[in-house]
Amino acid sequence: MRACRKLSAVTQNRIPAVISIAGSDSGGGAGIQADLKVFAACGVHGMTAITALTAQNTVGVDAVAPIAPEMIVAQVRAVARDIGIDAVKIGMLGTVVTIEAVVAALGELAEGTPIVLDPVMVSESGAPLLEPEARDALIELLLPRVTVATPNLPEARVIAGSDDDAPELARAIHALGPRHVVVTGGHRDKATDVMFDGETTIEIPGERHPDGAAHGSGCTHSSALAAHLALGFAPVDAARAAKVIAAQAVHDGLREIGRGPGPVDALGIRSRRPLAPPASAHAR
Ligand SMILES: Nc1ncnc2c1ncn2[C@@H]1O[C@H](COP(=O)(O)OP(=O)(O)O)[C@@H](O)[C@H]1O
Ligand SMILES: Cc1ncc(COP(=O)(O)OP(=O)(O)O)c(N)n1
């Protein structure tokens, strides 16, 4: 049952709580593992409703196990009832059954809760993460309910059913129901994100970091966007902040992790690492 509209975290001067409804990446680069790091980096409390487990590393996905639909709804209901949900990020869904469960779970949200949908289809290593028959369900059941959809260029082309460039794609996808669309720029020459809000097309530029590590950049972007909506930012400002955070996470990416494309780093892990063990460690 949908709860009534609750006061925003900003109005109440409390730490926003944001849920990631997404898949688990055992390699720690994308999915809920990435999302929780981003939530922490943005200063919001992170929560999860896991949709699928993936046995995944930087070179491939060995196995995928969907979570039972009633368990997906139960995870969202549990946190909605006690903690409250100030924004939602939706990532890997996988199957039609999972999409239907997530749609049901959205019924647990207070009216007006912002929802960010990253329509994950393929991993950076090339593995399919959305069954082809689930595409229509994602477009028809979920897209019309979201505040901001954040497809990358290939995902936007699948959803729009055209080979156009980002500005046209953003407009075509907006016509399918989301209130805002950001076509992310990692697959474009200049890594410029393109947003459409129903009236205006806005370019969100940024430096491309060709030598970074980008596994999980889409997850990082959509989580940062959801976190900033929970923090009270307007969608266009949240999208600008998400672009800065995702680009920095790619720049700082952990190229040395794994044999494939390394994970982004939204927490600045490299700079936190002690360069030498403390002297006391040698004494033992
Ligand atoms: N090499 C890069 N340099 C700078 N920003 C990047 C780079 N790759 C991705 N980004 C940014 O990361 C975010 C996610 O982009 P994208 O790669 O399109 O998503 P996905 O990971 O889903 O393919 C976007 O804001 C994009 O501009
Ligand atoms: C469990 C899981 N979810 C999502 C992805 C894909 O992550 P994303 O950040 O959209 O894309 P890449 O930057 O990794 O291409 C994943 N691999 N696993």
Automatic annotation (TrEMBL):
Listed InterPro entries: HMP/HMP-P_kinase_dom, PM/HMP-P_kinase-1, Ribokinase-like
Signal sequence interval, chain numbering: none
SUPFAM superfamilies registered for this protein in UniProt: Ribokinase-like
Biological processes per GO annotation: thiamine biosynthetic process; thiamine diphosphate biosynthetic process
Pfam families attached to this UniProt entry: Phos_pyr_kin (PF08543)
This protein's record includes keyword Isomerase: no
GO terms for MF: ATP binding; hydroxymethylpyrimidine kinase activity; phosphomethylpyrimidine kinase activity
Official protein name in the record: Phosphomethylpyrimidine kinase
Organism: Conexibacter woesei (strain DSM 14684 / CCUG 47730 / CIP 108061 / JCM 11494 / NBRC 100937 / ID131577)
